[in-house]
Specification:
Blueprint (H helix, E strand, L loop, with lengths): L1 H42 L2 H7 L8 H16 L3 H14 L5 H16 L9 E5 L6 E8 L3 H7 L3 E7 L7 E7 L4 E2 L4 H9 L20
Antiparallel strand pairs: 1-2, 1-5, 2-3, 3-4
Helix pairs in contact: 1-2, 1-3
Amino acid sequence: MKKYLLTGLLVWLPLAITIWVLLWLVGLLDAIFGGLLTGLVALTPNSAGTLIEPLRHIPGLGVVLVFSALLVTGALVSNVAGRWWLAQWDRLFAHIPVFKSIYNSVKKVSDTLFSSNGNAFRKAMLVQYPRAGVWTVAFQTGTPGGEVAHHLGADFVSVYVPTTPNPTSGFFLLLPRSEVIELRMSVDEALTYVISMGSVAPAVAIELAPKQVSP
């Protein structure tokens, strides 16, 4: 019975966690949409509020509207006029005390992580951590810059060492390039390897040098 129970758990657990994450995301977006409706009702006359209030009880409507808003926003800021308005938007928030510190920090991180031209989290590698002789999987986040690069030199890489099984927390390290080993596995495969605590190893074909045949 124990064997069958564990086998059934392995079958249903990924599906259950996936559904739980999707339901959590839908609930979060619906809550955001509900907050927007609350503010809209407070600013509009009572007659308009009675028409807006039923929208709060439509499940999943927040997901559709938030997705549509993101899609339309992305399309608008992809042209010259949209980029100009985006620059004015950033300039406005950059002058609000307290708010500007949070906004600028989050914007820099998001631009680095999600930029199509960036190198953050595009490469998995092996590093020695927490001591020499002990290896773990890490992700390259870039190369040192500014004052850090001035002190360390150019031949260093910035890496993120995730914890397991929760990779959202981890450690930021600056290591000599000669002390890291770049991996062929994709970032998704490496992340799965970390989350599974090494139990799901990616199947990567290693090219071996052809054997020399003696005459």
